[in-house]
Amino acid sequence: MKNRIRKEKLNMRSALTDEELQQKSFFIFQKLKSFPLVQEAKNISVYVDFRNEVKTNQIIQHFLSVGKKVMVPISIPSTKQMLFSQLIDPEKDLIPGNYGILEPRQNAIRIVDPDCLDLILVPGVAFDPQGYRIGYGGGYYDRFFSQRKKRISAIALAFDLQIAEALPSEPFDHPVDYIITETRIITCK
What we know:
The protein is 29% helix and 23% strand. A hairpin with a 4-residue loop joins strand 10 and strand 11 (185-187). The protein is built from six helices and eleven strands. The longest helix has 16 residues, at 18-33.
């Protein structure tokens, strides 16, 4: 079931034109930057967009320009864990890493304790209004959230076409708190 939904939503997302991607991502950015939880946060993890995900470059640049500390995830495929590195200069720091996703180059890795995070922006393929998500199947984010002692607020960035009425969920799935799309902000239950 999850694989079928994943494939369907990925196909829908990949059908977006570059112009649609940029425009929808801009509307999401506008909602995100004025969201109170985001305005209060000082240390934020932001994924670096990949393929046709909600574009995050503008978000990263904005957060850096207003003095927030930006951390980016680094995936460790052998353990399915994520580390977080403080990003200072996206242009100089990032190169293609695991899965082709931009990650900090070796001399730009600045590992931080994930418990310093106030907020984490979560990518995904499909989401439902309860906050459950289908990612790419690696379980990195669910594993990360299950290992935290401190509760970290999570906001998913998604296009409306990625929202499903309900998704299958497992006991180890960790729902996000909010989903921001180009037309709405969903408070998850």
